[in-house]
Every structure is written in structure tokens, then in C-alpha cells.
Amino acid sequence: MKKKRINPTSLVFLILVFVFIYAPIISIAVFSFNEANSLVRWSGFTFARYIELFTDRELFNYSNPRESIVFMTLWIALVSTLVSTILGTLAAIALTQTKKVIRDLTMSVNNIPIVSPEIITAVSLLVLFGALQIAPSYNTMLLAHIAFSTPYVLITVYPKVKSLDPNIADAAYDLGASPFKALLKVILPQIKVAIIAGAAIAFTMSFDDFIISYFVAGSSGDKNISIYLYTNRLSPKPIINALSTIILLIIGGKITYDYFKTGKKMEEIE
Predict the structure, then answer these.
(1) Range among 12-26, 138-152, 208-222 rated most confident
(2) Where are the domains of the chain?
(3) Does the N terminus or the C terminus of the chain have fewer Cβ atoms within 10 A?
């Protein structure tokens, strides 16, 4: 069989596209090991930026995690993911038991915050908290993250729940299972992949969010990683490169793991 020859023009274009996309990311990783404080001038290799990163009291306050930006970012992301996953999953299961008109109306309303500009959601939450006289703080940020994460979980889990055999729950009831036990032992195991996918989306949305967090956060001490990076944009610290590199490694490792895991499942199916 004759091998297809690679078009040099297409190869050059592909290389230019990859350079355009990944050059900024590579530069962040490279300059995270820069000995100088400059973000553009290379003077030598060092791990000092990573040492400074993990000893920075604003980012990692080990004695008082409540005032640590990294710890609070992870805490808000984890709690909002847990709550939004539970709410979105239960809502998806409940929708399958309602009339079609109610399902269609609910899904349409659920899609509004997803398709709306994030700035609209941010202003809406700011006005809501102000009307309820809730002072901006980490609590308002947590509530906001739960509010905008839940629709993503619902829209991810609902199609899987809808595809289940509606007689499965009835069979469990006939065998003596209570509604809670049927949910725990029969329904949830069959939709766990969709639940995990929804939770992953919710965690990513929360961890990466800036606009909504910036509007509903409290004083200057109430900030997540995105707000921290934004407030230091005019005079960025060298440790920002180290922090960004670690985040990229975590995300890249997760994507690589999912890729090989999906590939392994496809091989088993074949």
C-alpha cells in the first residue's frame, strides 16, 4: 500500500499553529526556573521560584489556611463541586419523573446561565446578595460557585438518567428496596460516569473562575487564585510563573490520564 506523502506546506502551517498556541505556555514553564527576577530576560537555572512559591504567606499560609489563597481556592472548588453535584444529580433524576412540559421548561431555564455572558451572571449575583443584605465574603463566593456550577452538572447528568430503563426503579421497589436504597444501589451506579464528568466540569469552572468571584468576593483578603493573578498583572511576581506551571502540570496530567483511560476502554470494547 502506497504511503501518503506529507504536504510540506500543511506541515509548516501545522507547526506554526502549534507554536502560536503553546509558545506562551512553554515560556511560562521555562521562566519559572529563571534565576533573575525578570520575566523576559534569562540569566540562569534555579528552583528558587518554587521555594519562594511554597513559602509565600499570601498563597500558602500553613498556620492559618483561612487566609491562604491556594487553600481557600481548593476549598471553595471542592465544596461547591460536592454541593452542585448532589443538587444537579438529584434534579436530573427528579426531572425524569415529571411531565414533558415541566422538563422542557426546566432545561430551558437551566441553560440560561450557561449561554449567558459570565458578566451578566456576576452582576445578577452581586445585586441578589445586595438585596438580601449578605455581605460579600468567602461565603458569597461559595454560594455563587454553587449557583453557576449546578446547571453544568444537571445538563451533563440528565441525558444519562433519561436513557435508563424506567422499569429498573420499579423492579427494585418490587424486590423490597426503599426509594433511598434504590437510588443508592440501582440508579447511581449506572450514572456514575456522568456524575463524575459533571463533577469534573464543576470543579474546573470553580477553580478557574475569575469574573463572578471578583464581583462577589469581599475585601482584598478574600480572593482566589484567579483574582490573585489579576491583581498582580501590572507588577507580576516571578513566582506566578511557578504557580502557573504547577497548575498546567496538574491539568496536563489529568488530560493525559483521561486520554489513556479512554483509549484502554476503547481497546477493551474492540
Answers:
(1) 138-152
(2) 23-39+225-250, 70-223
(3) N
Assigned C-alpha cell, 9:
506546506
Q: Is the pLDDT of residue 104 over 90?
A: no
Name residue 45's beta-bridge partners.
Answer: 34
pLDDT digit string, tens, across residues 161-171 = 888 877 777 77
In the three-class reduction of DSSP (H, G, I as helix; E, B as strand; rest coil), residue 34 is classed as: strand
Q: What is the model's pTM? A: 0.80
Grouping H, G, I as helix, E, B as strand and the rest as coil, residue 219 is coil
How far, in Å, CA of 214 to CA of 136, rounded?
10
* 75 DSSP 8-state letter: H
CA distance 227 to 159: 34
Give the model confidence (pLDDT) of 130-143 as tens digits.
899 888 888 899 99
Q: What is the DSSP string of 4-55?
A: PPPPHHHHHHHHHHHHHHHHHHHHHHHHTTBSSS-SS----B-SHHHHHHHH
CA-closest candidate to residue 172, choices 154, 185, 159, 153: 185
* Residue located via cell numbers 473562575: 209
3-state SS string for 76-90: HHHHHHHHHHHHHHH
Class of 70-223 per CATH? mainly alpha
d(CA 12, CA 234) in angstroms, rounded, equals 35
* Closest among 161, 157, 140, 159 to 224, alpha carbons compared: 140
State the DSSP H helix or E strand holding residue 67, giving kind and residue range, or none if neither.
none
Distances from the Cα of 4 to the Cα of 8, 11, 14, angstroms: 12, 13, 17
